[in-house]
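Researcher: Structure prediction, please.
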Amino acid sequence: MKFVLSLLFPYLLCLLLVFIFQRKILYFPQTLTINEQKQLTSELQLKLWPTEDENYFGLISAEPLNQYKGTIIVFHGNAGSANGRVYFRDALEKIGYRVILAEYPGYGAKTGTPSEKTILEEATRTVQQAIDDFDGPLFLWGESLGTGVVSELVRKIQVPVKAIALITPFDSMANIAQHHYWFLLPKVLLLDRFNSVKNLQHFNEKIAVIMAGKDEVIPNSNTLNLYNSLHASKKIWTFPEAGHNTLPFAPDNTWWREVMNFLDSR
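Model: Predicted structure follows.
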């Protein structure tokens, strides 16, 4: 009995610590002062939107095009910040779309602490502001963690989203955590669940899915579980040799235009 207890106590202590600090494991923000953010944004030929202080919602091009086909809001993954997602602007603006690189609480120069609740609240405000500021159809793109944000957004808020694109999406955060950390009982202890299968059950607009064939973070089985659960008009692009962070994001790649042709068609 003493031997069992000697093993059980450290394990339970470990579970307690993981439960308390789990968001430190899930979220890896790049943090900057507002002056550092402004300088970096300027170097990237971007600007803070809609304000120039810590209350900004995201980044947009400093020199807008004369005309846009619509607006795309991009919700990025769990690491870094919107500053590192300029490739979305470079690729999608090139084919005629306004791109907003949305930012999360606690990322970049934004105040706050990231969680499923705070991210969704800020994302909701971001979408509403984009609808107020810009004309034309609205598209939501999510990357990794951002696919969970997009999926929850379209279930919880009533906005005219024309279509969504999900890059390396997952079925639920609980399933991904279970795959990597099964010994820590994530399905019991996880706080931020991002259940995309549930959230997209009643979304009836077009959905594009981009999958990395050698994704070491989100197994293809979890991406396909989500894809197969979708009832909307859908299409998948698979890059067999790509890993989670090595998708072909160069702006000249043809798949960007293929995805938007699918999403923006009637």
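Model: Residues 30-263 form a domain with the Rossmann fold fold (CATH 3.40.50.1820).
Researcher: Thanks, that helps.
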